Automatic annotation (TrEMBL):
PANTHER family tied to this protein: TRANSCRIPTIONAL ACTIVATOR PROTEIN UGA3 (PTHR37534), ZN(II)2CYS6 TRANSCRIPTION FACTOR (EUROFUNG) (PTHR37534:SF23)
UniProt biased composition (Pro residues): 13-22
Record GO terms (molecular function): DNA-binding transcription factor activity, RNA polymerase II-specific; transcription cis-regulatory region binding; zinc ion binding
Name of the protein described by the UniProt record: Fungal transcriptional regulatory protein
UniProt keyword annotation of Nucleus present: yes
Top-level taxon in the UniProt lineage: Eukaryota
Record key words, sorted: Nucleus
Organism lineage: Eukaryota, Fungi, Dikarya, Ascomycota, Pezizomycotina
GO terms under cellular component: nucleus
Residue span, Zn(2)-C6 fungal-type domain: 44-72
Residue segments, region Disordered: 1-38
Length: 488
């Protein structure tokens, strides 16, 4: 009985599967392997496409490049249908493409498979990063942009491209970008290759400091630090008559000239009188406006007419230390009349350069008008003026309330928020003895600005000064600020 049951159970077993295909005499399969077809991706990083491997498209560095310690060229914008025209135009002109610059024959690998970059490849990677990330991000956050940015040709950078300071600056920007994207601490880490970036940054800074030490011991101009740098720069401008005759052939020189000038003027506005940079006062207001007004200065999109009044208020502050304010009243009255005469709504029609016709531009112009007006009241000590003040003088309470209302609207637009550091500095002093909601809003906007990867802590420095000022229960402009510092 047992044997019969066993036989019946075995009979119910399924038959063995058929062979997978034709076999040779030796038993091996002769079935041909079919290659699976799939469309080629168009958004992988440049490095993975060159290596012909699938990219996981992780941002800002893909997993393949992290695992193989290769430079991640970022998204392949040239073939991507979703790439913006701004990025495509910038990348095509500013940087040479990786595949055109260094074919595989000039990028050998060692026994570990790591790539050995040829001489000068770090500069190519630096421009690759600037073209793919930094420049497009700056253009995207430009509230005054009317068209895609016009890239500057590499030939405009005279011979100093391979300097340690340039490479350190680009690597520092990439470290900040990677840390912000991954929400990791800004410190050496093995995550996403930042540890190697930090070591490279340290090496470049060490070389740069060596050159700086040489300059400190061989050039007397550098002994005064940053102040000597600014003073020497403006002295050279005066020597060659630059403010009266500005050369327009070199766009890099023009950007540096305007950057230094705006830094000096705006930096003096938030600096105590006894710590200001006085070399900028060697230029009159017409010369400063000529430097500022070639085009709209996008990091500080203040209308040219209002920028001239900031420089004028700086001079009045300096003059008030040696003379009676009553002797300056005619100049003060004329200053406020000029500020009140500015029309934000018609700025785009009267400016010497093209301005986008968007509501954001009118909002920014009105905010700067209120901020300049309040700066004149606070910096010249007119906040306690009696009721008999001239009608051209603004009312501090009303102007501060309107400024806070307009600043709240900028939270809806990242482009507007990114240029609000100086108006927030003025508003922070104006609402020192006002409602708590105003101070909270100023702190929120400054925190939003500092969260951007290209803010570099300037807004955070402004926040620290304002918080100390608020805690001290002070209200005077001179009591808030200390030494010179950059504000954008």
């Amino acid at each position: 009985m047992v044997k019969l049951t066993t036989i019946r159970a075995a009979g119910n077993a399924p038959p063995p599967p058929p062979p997978p295909g034709p076999v040779d005499d030796d038993g091996s399969s002769t079935k041909q392997r079919v290659k699976r077809w799939a469309p080629r991706g168009k958004t992988g990083c440049v490095t993975c496409r060159r290596r012909k491997v699938r990219c996981d498209e992780a941002k800002p560095i893909c997993g393949n490049c992290v695992a193989t310690r290769r430079y991640c060229g970022g998204p392949y914008y040239q073939d991507s249908a979703q790439a913006s025209d701004v990025v495509r135009n910038v990348a095509a002109v500013v940087i040479p493409r990786l595949r055109d610059t260094a074919p595989r024959s000039v990028r050998p690998t060692n026994h570990r498979g790591w790539e050995i970059a040829p001489d000068g490849w770090d500069v190519v990677e630096a421009f690759e990063y600037l073209g793919l990330y930094t420049i497009p991000h700056s253009t995207e956050m430009d509230v005054m942009a009317t068209r895609p940015a016009v890239p500057v040709a590499l030939a405009a950078y005279p011979g100093c491209v391979n300097s340690e300071s340039f490479l350190a600056r680009v690597i520092a920007d990439r470290i900040v970008w990677v840390s912000c994207c991954q929400r990791t601490a800004l410190s050496p880490s093995t995550a996403h290759g930042t540890k190697d970036l930090w070591f490279k940054f340290y090496d470049l800074i060490q070389k740069h400091l060596g050159q700086l030490n040489y300059d400190l011991t061989h050039h007397i101009l550098c002994l005064g630090g940053w102040r000597a740098h600014f003073d020497g720069y403006f002295a050279l401008l005066n020597m060659f008559g630059i403010p009266k005759r500005i050369p327009k052939e070199n766009p890099v020189f023009l950007d540096m000239l305007r950057s230094m000038t705006v830094n000096a003027v705006i930096g003096n506005s938030v600096t105590r009188i006894d710590r200001q940079m006085h070399s900028i006062y060697d230029f009159d207001d017409a010369e400063l406006v000529n430097i500022f007004g070639q085009t709209c200065f996008t990091p500080f999109p203040c209308p040219k007419a209002l920028f001239a009044e900031i420089a004028a208020i700086n001079r009045l502050r300096l003059a008030a230390t040696t003379s009676n304010l009553a002797a300056l009243l005619p100049s003060v009255n004329a200053l406020f009349r000029r500020i009140n005469a500015f029309q934000p709504g018609t700025w785009k029609d009267t400016a010497e350069f093209e301005i986008p016709r968007t509501p954001e531009v009118v909002l920014v112009a009105r905010i700067f008008q209120l901020a300049v007006s309040l700066y004149g009241v606070l910096a010249l000590g007119l906040e306690h003026a009696d009721a008999g003040a001239p009608p051209s003088w603004p009312d501090q309470t009303a102007a501060a309330a309107e400024l806070i209302t307009l600043l709240r609207k900028t939270l809806r637009s990242p482009k507007c928020v990114s240029v609000m550091t100086w108006p927030c500095a003025v508003a922070g002093v104006a609402v020192a003895d006002g409602p708590e909601a105003g101070r909270k809003l100023v702190g929120e906007i400054l925190a939003r600005i500092d969260a951007d990867v290209l803010a570099y802590g300037i807004a955070a420095h402004t926040t620290e000064r304002l918080r100390a000022f608020w805690l001290a229960k002070k209200t005077g402009w001179e009591e808030c600020w200390g030494g010179f510092y950059l504000l954008w």
